[in-house]
Amino acid sequence: MSGKTANLEEKSSIIVNQEEKSVNIITKTIRLYFAKMRCNERCYHLHAAHVNWKELALSSLGCILSTGFITLLSTHHGVPLMIPSFGASVIVLYTACHFPMAQPRNVVGGHVISAFSGVSVYQLFGNDWWAITLAVVLAMTLMTLTGTLHPPGGATAFVAVYGGQNFSFILAPVLIGSSILILIALLINNISPARKYPQYWL
């Protein structure tokens, strides 16, 4: 009996140890997960980075010309070039022109792919909430797979479904509008000796 009791105690001890290990692993995983949300000391100083006023002025000029030209053509000349996501693209083009997401391939390609995703989803499923969600996810996936990631493209897909767009939406405002943004960005960004735009075309 004493031998059986010892075996039972040993098995119970093993089970308890395994449970404790499992709990420890889960606890550690949860702690590591939430630890990622804490900011290190360096983060607190990023917002206070030195502002180059000349570069900021040039970026502001680019934003004015790009947004102004697109909206002028749309509101006064009846050319359909105005979508909200272009506002985000303009900021990317003049504040992050050296990043991949600001390159012509990404800006034009990202918007066109996103527009195609949104219009296709709308034509197939309408503009219910889940269709909008599907369009944004599809746009993100296709942009990632094709190397044309441009975050404002998510808004293009969103608008395409929500606004009930047809396939002409891909040409105008999306393709023509994004191409105009690139053209103006080429002219403005390269005024600065500190900027080279684009870093690549394709």
Write up what this structure looks like.
There is one protein chain. This protein is an all-alpha fold and 202 residues long. It folds into two domains: 2-45; 51-189. It has eight helices and no strands. The chain is flat and about 90 Å long. The N and C termini lie far apart (79 Å). The model has no long low-confidence stretch (mean pLDDT 91). Residues 50-198 form the HPP transmembrane region domain. Keywords: Membrane, Transmembrane, Transmembrane helix. Pfam families: TM_HPP.
Question: Layout of SSEs?
Answer:
Layout: H1 2-35, H2 43-46, H3 53-76, H4 85-95, H5 104-125, H6 129-146, H7 153-162, H8 168-189
Helix pairs in contact: 3-4, 3-8, 4-8, 5-6, 5-7, 5-8, 6-7
Helix and strand sequence = HHHHHHHH
The secondary structure category is mainly alpha
Percent of residues in helices:
over 70%
Mean pLDDT: 91
Globally, the shape reads flat
Biggest pleated-sheet summary? none
User: How far is the first residue's CA from the last residue's CA?
Assistant: 79 Å
User: Residue ranges: pLDDT <50 for 5 or more in a row?
Assistant: none
Number of domains: 2
Content of β-strand? under 5%
Q: How many helices in DSSP terms?
A: 8
Number of strands: 0
From the alpha-carbon coordinates, what is the Rg to the nearest angstrom? 26 Å
